[in-house]
Amino acid sequence: MRPIISTAVTCLSITAFSQIVDAQVSGESQGGRAVTLEEVVVTAQKREERLQDVPISIAVVGGDTLDKSSDRTVLEAVGRVPGVFTGVSNQGGRQGGNPMVVVRGVSSPSVGSSTTGYYLDSIPYTRANQSNVPDLNPYDLDRVEVLRGPQGTLYGASALNGVVRVLTKNPNLQDFEFKARGSLQNTENGSESYTGDAAFNVPLIQDKLAARIVLSHQDLGGWIDKPNLASGPKEDANDIEKSTARVKLAVKPSDNLSIGLSGWFQRTDQGSLPTSSDGGRTNSTRVEEGGSNDLDIYNLDLGYDTSLFSIRSATSYMEQDSTNVFDFTPIFPFPSLLSGHFSGKVVSEELVLSSTGNGPWRWTLGSLYRDSKETDRGTIVNLAPPPDFPGGINKNHSKSIAVYGELTRTFADGRFELTGGLRYFEDKVRDWEESRQNVGTNPDGGLDSIESTFEKTTPRVVLTWHPTADSTLYASYAKGFRSGIHQAFAVVDALTLAGNPPPPAQPDTLTNYEIGAKATLGRFAVDSAVYYIDWQDPQSNITQYLPGPGGNPSPNPIVISGGSVTGIGVDLAVAYSPVDSLALGFNVGWNDLTFDDDVYTPCRPSPTNPPSCQVLLHPKGTRRLSSPETTAGVFGNYSVPLGSGYRGRISASVNYVSDQLASVNTTLGTTVGNTIIATLYKGDSMTISRASFTLEAPKHWTAMLFADNIGNQQGLLRDAFSPQYNTVIRPRTYGLQIEYRY
Q1: Contact partners, residue 379, CB within 8 Å, separation at least 6
Q2: Residue ranges of the alpha helices (H) in 639-699?
Q3: Where are the beta strands (DSSP E) in 483-629?
Q4: Which residues have a Cβ under 8 Å from the Cβ of 700 and sit 6 or more positions away?
Q5: Percent of the chain with pLDDT over 70
Q6: What are the φ/ψ torsions at residue 74 (nearest 5 degrees)?
Q7: Which positions ≥6 away from 172 have C-beta within 8 Å?
Q8: Can you tell me the distance from the alpha carbon of 432 to that of 451, in angstroms, rounded to the nearest whole number?
Q9: What is the tens place of the pLDDT at every residue in 504-519?
């Protein structure tokens, strides 16, 4: 194993300044009047614990910090956590699409389930064949926990190298609460944006029953023009309208029993994707593009506490329905568009039994059942002869179970701890077709169906030392796991006809060795860790042109697995408050996660390809797609009295993400002998700066002037096949936000 040197971090923040994380420092009375060390409690290990004591690399973004920031989505804030990248995605990016979350360079671009687990309260969100996650409204959250490294024992197959937990605020059983905020923003060379949020907390029966309601609406203006539309030019075509409603009910029949009911509803309508053919201002597509996404989540939480143990049950139902329309004219030799529709329903039940009390033994036992049904429909609509092609309907059904447990023994009055954990996971997956778009490509002449069972047992071992009450050192060994994935039926049939059928992508596993340290020393706080990643049989995808409708070639993703990706990494965050009114900090995440050997895949059958052709997809020493080597950030926050009880607060931050491979093209690759060397396209590095000035009234009111992406970075990700789908981020934006709290 290579030498291990790394550092992972959970930082700090001052009240409304949320550029990194909230883990260590916050402003007193939400006003920034003084900097005080704050004890942060998390539930990353399925029990309430001080963040300082948890032997995992965790970053925490607090709900109050999100309320006071200019962030419009959860993942905008998560993307500034050390070692985490969410900035843009070829699937749509932070503006309009559902981005993926990449932790420590472990990415899953475009095909396959996510390498990072994503939880909405206790509800797991996982797509079978997509790595994207929903980008949620950040208003009135309790906190967001970002766990770095494999969490396969407590969180299962999706947590290959990390977990994001979006935790909402519980109803307050004692007090009435009301708060609201609104903002007006202007994007350079784009349209104005308007947002509004409100939250109500109402105790219906004192100490027994309460309700919390959150309402939000965002009208986000676009900035990309479409001058070549067949229907006429359109300015700022990539606009978004998003509405969110969240209702949470808390019932406390007795001191031991708690009941929680919740519903989360989000509606998104968007214009075109944030993609540009000229690097940021225009798009050459000729047809109207757009989409919608409806997400409904229902959850029932039951909890019962005794002096010896506690029981928690979380039952959830999630339903998602989305449509998208894309210009397919560059793909076929005639004007056309692709109309896609996705619908999914997921039922899950998790039962957790954990010890209570302060004895030398702590333990957790749990089980999870998840039933997921997904339907994908795609139709190619021609805008000129020939006629439309019939739509393809593909379905996926996944039924998974898991049982897990962790046991901790403390020694020397709690200064040392030894933890061991194990999880068994089984996933039965069936994919089938109800109709075929690529007519005539099935060698059997009918519709396809395939079933597989993927299973894995993942361990975790941690040795922890608490030298003082405010410091923790740990060494851990942990594994993460991701299920295998079936090839698309069109891919299987097209290559089977050519005598070269592709196998399913097998499950991949990731092993992580880590050493970490957390400490708070007066006005100085640091969180660090050392890790080495060994990722075996990583799933990758390659897009090749295969026979499609009417014999016309169309791009299809082929999933491959094999080889290994290894590397060391560094995540570090440091915060310092030299005086009560000033906070400073920096963070860095770095890793050298690369392929250990060349990764090949068979060529697409073609008269122009050499015999026994193979494609060099990932040369040895290269990184995966969407896997930046370095993330870094600095921030400062200064609070000053202005007289008559008013205060001013100046905040600024700069965050850097190194360039990353964005896409791969085998059609334009270089041929050497019988090998085609695929062409790799890089995305831009990004240096994003933000600044704000906040005026705080003595009571209730706060007003903030802010500027985002001051340097007007594009964050360009190049598309290997269609330049009009080069993804960019929102340009320089200025705004005013006003908040009221009762």
Answers
A1: 338, 339, 340, 388, 389, 390, 391, 392, 437
A2: none
A3: 508-521, 524-536, 539-547, 553-561, 564-579, 582-591, 594-595, 599-602, 614-618
A4: 740, 741, 742
A5: 83
A6: -60, -40
A7: 201, 203, 210, 212
A8: 9
A9: 777 889 999 999 999 9
8 Å CB contact between 446 and 436: no
State residue 534 phi and psi, 5-degree precision: -125, 100
The total number of residues shown for the chain amounts to 742
Burial (Cβ within 10 Å: 0-12, 13-18, ≥19) of residue 488? buried
Cβ proximity of 575 and 525 under 8 Å: yes
DSSP per-residue string spanning 138-185? -TTEEEEEEEES--HHHH-TT-SSEEEEEEEPPPPSS--EEEEEEEEE
The token duo for 438 is 């690529």
Q: Is 461 exposed, middle or buried (0-12, 13-18, 19+ CB in 10 A)?
A: middle
Instruction: For strands 117-120 and 162-168, give the pairing.
Output: parallel
Alpha carbon of 507 to those of 456, 483, 567, 626, 627: distances in Å? 9, 5, 20, 20, 20
Contacts of 140 (CB under 8 A, 6+ apart): 63, 67, 168, 169, 179, 197, 199, 212, 214, 246
Q: What are the structure tokens assigned to 159, written together?
A: 């947590």
Provide the 3-class DSSP secondary structure of residue 77: helix
pLDDT tens-digit series, residues 243-296: 999 999 999 999 999 999 999 999 999 888 888 888 778 888 877 888 888 999
CA distances (Å), origin 734, targets 18, 120, 188:
17, 30, 8
Q: Retrieve residue 108's tokens.
A: 């899953």
Cβ neighbours, 10 Å, residue 508: 27
Q: Under a CB-based contact definition with an 8 Å cutoff, are residues 249 and 701 in contact?
A: no
- Retrieve residue 527's tokens: 């969180």
How far from each other are the two terminal CA atoms of the chain, in whole angstroms?
A: 57
In this structure, are residues 369 and 401 in contact, taking their beta carbons and an 8 Å threshold?
yes
* Domains of the chain in sequence order: 25-741 (2.40.170.20)
> What single letter denotes the amino acid at residue 408?
T
Q: Based on the number of CB atoms within 10 Å of its own CB, is 480 exposed (0-12), middle (13-18) or buried (19 or more)?
A: buried
CB atoms within 10 A of CB 255: 7
Report which residue type is found at 139: Y
pTM of the model: 0.88
State the pLDDT at residue 543: 63
Angle at 73 between CA 70 and CA 74, to 5 degrees: 105
| Residue among 14, 18, 74, 55 nearest 38 (CA) | 14
Provide the greatest CA pair distance for the chain: 83
Residues 6+ apart with CB under 8 A from 473: 464, 465, 466, 467, 515, 516, 517, 518
Of 64-73, 103-112, 316-325, 615-624, minimum mean pLDDT range: 103-112
Q: Residue 709 region, left (φ>0) first, then alpha (ψ -120 to 50), else beta?
A: left
For residue 151, count other CB atoms closer than 10 A to its CB: 27
